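Revision sheet: structure tokens.
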Amino acid sequence: MRTWSCINLLKNSAISDMDEKQKIEFEKQLKELTSEDLMTEINLLLKDKNKGILDSASCAILSAFRDGEFIIEGKRVPIERCFNNGK
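Predicted:
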């Protein structure tokens, strides 16, 4: 169930619309999502034999997240570029 929460959080996040307080809270949530257990779950879901469980958008979101990226306007962007004023 945590993996579905991860997908929903990543799908429904618009960092450009967040104020600083919201960004800080989102960063905290991201740290929880990158726990070893959850990343293992993500890797298992993304294995070829399991890809039918997810729709293509969810696969793309999780794949990008696993690689340290978000999908913004259809393009992969490193997560760290979305924080710290893009530095």
